Amino acid sequence: MNEQQIPAAFDRDHFATRHIGPRDVRTGVEAAADGTPGDVVRMLAVLGQPSLDALVDAAIPASIREHAPLDLPAARTETEVTADLRRIAAKNVVKTQMIGLGYYGTTTPAVIRRNVLESPGWYTSYTPYQAEISQGRLEALLNFQTVVEDLTGLAIANASLLDEATAVAEAVALMFRAHKTGSKGARGAAGGTVVLDAELFPQTLAVTQGRSDAAGLHVVVADLTDGLPDVEGDLVGVVLQQSGTSGVVRDLRPLVAAAKERGALVTVAADLLALTVLVSPGELGADVSVGSAQRFGVPLFYGGPHAAFMAVRSGLERSLPGRLVGVSLDADGAPAYRLALQTREQHIRRERATSNICTAQALLAIVASMYAVYHGPRGLRAIAERVHDRAVALAAGARAAGLTVVHDTFFDTVRLHVPGRAAALVAAACDAGINLYAPDADHVQASCDETTTPETIATLLGVLTGSTPADAAADGALPAWALRSTEYLTHPVFSAHRSETSMLRYLRALSDKDLALDRTMIPLGSCTMKLNATVEMEPISWPELADVHPFVPADQATGYRELVETLEGWLAEITGYAGVSVQPNAGSQGEFAGLLAIRGYHRSRGDEGRDVVLIPASAHGTNAASAALAGLRVVVVATAEDGSIELDDLRAKLDQHGPQVAGIMITYPSTHGVYEAHVRDVCALVHDAGGQVYIDGANLNALVGLARPGRFGGDVSHLNLHKTFCIPHGGGGPGVGPVAVADHLVPFLPGNPLDGAASAGVPVSAAPYGSAGILPISYAYVALMGPDGLTAATEGAVLSANYLAARLREHFPVLYAGPGGLVAHECILDLRDITKRTGVTAEDVAKRLMDYGFHAPTLAFPVPGTLMVEPTESEDLAELDRFVDAMVAIRGEIDAVEQGRWVVEESPLRGAPHTAGALLSGDWDKAYSREEAAAVVGQDGRATARAATKYWPPVRRVDGAYGDRNLVCACPPVESFAD
């Protein structure tokens, strides 16, 4: 390695020196003062490569390699980037937000903001697929489910969805699946019609109609004032908004009864805060309830991220999309949490999927759940009553001044009839520091929330009436039919933590149960668990970014617009595409948006018959799920033994389907962690057949600065900002999945959900810019790294993955590799032969790694019986070596089983993980010692784990089958498992 290989900008003040783990990949230090070789030199020696450039040249096909630097601003320091973001944020104008439409001001308790939203113990954790080291976040998500179940009055709720609009769309699909009708409509979808209440929020209608059209589900929007309309075919379902977009609260019982009489299912979109005083959807007879938990302490964030919810009655739980936390038992019979009914994970079902949900909004659901724990049932009801009282005071003052209040029964939103004056009143209120909403020229409305004060109401009445408001009798008691009569949040957790001391300790106790990136490497293949630097995270809590409503006038969000447009431009440069939209609020939604763009393009050219999408057998399962939801037929293309696309089979499929081919979906590098040499050939074959090429950007961390999908054949890609661009996973969300497209697809990027028919692109999220509130994280990352740093990060990821593959190959076969035995940014360890010989499974190794203080690699994907490892560029050499040492020690334990020292069922591998309580038990009857169980010493007596900082799993191995047979998905009574 020589000085010319190290960018001059990489001095010790460069952020990349703290982001990238192996030390001399960016400092230029070849050796320590004592002559010890630097990290990169040592790693390259293991690989037999003379330099980092040589390694990259050998690993990446020359046909796609780019050597020109990215055209991005030079790297800046942390101080400079923070100042830049301060400048951008200052351009936003923060007013009192009374627009409503599903987004409300709220106060995040400081103890929750500091110790959840801003805590790396919570935001750097991964989706809780490995239950034993996820008990804290699982309990928090179970709290969320309990909140939703109690308030909606329904039997079971999921652990969050992406936003309210997509939750309604998911409910529509669920009702079609669950309805008794057997007829089929367009593209194989169930026949009949779902009626959408005209009182649904406008963004909800836009997203639901777009998704339903894509899937061939027939929906109609109707004013339900005079009852349910006649519809085409069977009435499959009805979606009602309990507290409507106009603020009206109606007695929904007659509509629910009429729907039931016609054999339909009913979904009620509800507001969790309102449900502390309003009758629950379950009491109304609803089958499904959906909504947003945003006003439970989650900032506005200019539209997201916010946790949506879905709850269903008994009998529909196996149709519920998304994740579901359940209660089971561990190996000692102790209660333990886990993801229940995991086979419902939609990527497993591929083209048979009913949803493409992959990420959820776990971090935000946890914030909302802790808001409920913090306030308890009485506190929540007090907030709701105060909100209602403010709205009543507003209505009373308006009536006293001679204004017409449209509705007599409302919870938080007051609509006024002001013929021809709506725009003027909105402008006047804006000048007074208050944002209102005008649905048309003759109406204006204001929504009250937790932050609304009497002074706010007085100021607003002064604007609306043109004079100082006089005291007015405020009689706005809700009618008896609207009031809730059932209890909620009766579990002790919602009353046990009234003091901040108790709350703080509860949050700490939960986070201590988990393994997150703040403790250890999380070597998950395909999921890229890299450093989420504190400087990147800090801005999201600034009021100028956190307190902006997504539908404010454009001149109040110029800072956000600058941030979004700049980031979109940077992402376009990095990927080689012409345009980018950050609206998709998850990778799965980015996939969906990309496929809708392809479909829209073909339709615009009159190619209605192009409805086949080719998907390699090795692809991410969400690819097939997204294709099915976009109304496309999936045809599988075979993959070769090395994991690459089988070109002969691709040619055969193109010949077979010809003019029906809409495109192909490929992941690059492949899902198997290899750079496919003939990717340009694949793209050319599909283009010659008239199709488009979708390149899944899940593995972009192996390409940034070295190759661009938009230049080696891609027409569209989605990116995962929560992977390559440092937005943290947060225990399973938030995610952001921007879609990047070539010039001819730009008109089909997602449209603004409030623009209606003015946009050619189908909106895929409720807010125009999706989860805009966390975009400063990726903006900061790109600005801090600069073009050289981003390229070095990719090189570091490739170096680290190949280093691990080389060191582990003699102990665990590496399943796929490219020329010279090199991989991309991840590798697959093949345990299938080991399992045949010894009975030790990949799951045993995954569980045993917990005793060594590691999160497991990706288990059984993309090949059953394997572990997929991705170290990322963020881990230093010491941590990489510690992981290797743990894996080698585990291989020694496997050898001991094979040699007959232990029967596999009585080995530490099958007994893993081991809790401190199990080792302290007086009755130790294992065939191995307590020290071996704890993984602090190996068979040779040498230390194998850091005893002083050892992580102790809180539960033993969880019995998943028991949890599915005995489905409990709410906070269990304390005495439930007393025996």
UniProtKB/TrEMBL annotation:
GO terms for biological process: glycine decarboxylation via glycine cleavage system. The keyword Oxidoreductase applies. Coiled coil: none annotated. GO terms for molecular function: glycine binding; glycine dehydrogenase (decarboxylating) activity; pyridoxal phosphate binding. Keywords: Oxidoreductase, Pyridoxal phosphate. Its cofactor is pyridoxal 5'-phosphate. It holds the Pfam family GDC-P. The modification N6-(pyridoxal phosphate)lysine is found at residue 723. InterPro entries: GcvP (IPR003437), GDC-P_C (IPR049316), GDC-P_N (IPR049315), GDC_P (IPR020581), PyrdxlP-dep_Trfase (IPR015424), PyrdxlP-dep_Trfase_major (IPR015421), PyrdxlP-dep_Trfase_small (IPR015422). It comes from the Bacteria. The glycine cleavage system is composed of four proteins: P, T, L and H. Belongs to the GcvP family. The glycine cleavage system catalyzes the degradation of glycine. The P protein binds the alpha-amino group of glycine through its pyridoxal phosphate cofactor; CO(2) is released and the remaining methylamine moiety is then transferred to the lipoamide cofactor of the H protein. This is Glycine dehydrogenase (decarboxylating). It comes from Luteimicrobium xylanilyticum.
